[in-house]
Amino acid sequence: MSRTLAALCALMLVALLIASPLFAQDAPPEEPSPEVQQFIESLKFESGTIALPEAKATLKLQGEMRFLRGDDAERVLSQLWGNPPGSNPLGMLLPSATALTDAGGYAVVLTYNDDGYVSDEEASKVDYDEMLKEMQEGARAANEEREKAGYGTVELLGWADRPHYDSTSNKIYWAKRLKFSGSPQDTVNYDVRVLGRSGYLSLNAVAGMDQLEMIKSEMPRVIELTEFDSGARYADYQAGSDKVAAYGIAALVAGGVAAKAGLFGKLFAALLAAKKLLIPLLIGIGLAAKKVFSMFQRKAGGTA
Distance between CA 84 and CA 107 in Å, rounded? Predict the structure, then answer.
């Protein structure tokens, strides 16, 4: 992977991380306002065996996890947690025992990319230390534009969990340690890519660094819940007839490639970071949901 490509990937990645940590509260959150509670009650949570026809995949959830499909997941991301609208996720996995307004909880956002079969031939040859340096350079360059746009900086501090490819399950996972200017603690971004015959599933979770061990212990179970259907699995690939992606494993970790007009689509690498800041604002200060939602929408609209 060229130095220019890695820097460009990181630049485009960090440019999407618009959540600025303006609010930090250590006090425990109060009960959700009636508006927020009404919003949560409007969501349609699912459990058990869940078909994802768009990705030719299936989730087999146990009692400890629940699922929100695309539209509801988008509403949570943009309206409740203040991320830019229009991300169009496949869905969102959440712990059943954790409330959406719990700042100590986490969520895993699912997306699907159909660029084709991603070859894993280079998996054992990637220099992830060198890749990290290039991504950090791109992040620093992107911070100049972030500050010009009126947002705080995001520093890529390093790997919180070094990239690892499991050739048996055809899944690669890693974690990045991020620092948002003004935030009292670092953020950990845990990424998983599940390779399939025609593309891959992305699973992305974000939490505070103090939750890293919890996330690391939970994600293997989450990964096991997600599998492609028979005929769509990585092992089902037919050389010579199936579509092949224009990039490999390294590009997945770096953050993107110029495969579809520059990116895979909306990336979720750190969009959830805003949750740690906006939820206390929403329920701790007690602002009406309608007012807060409109504020988020104006902020997101100004960055389009």
Answer: 17
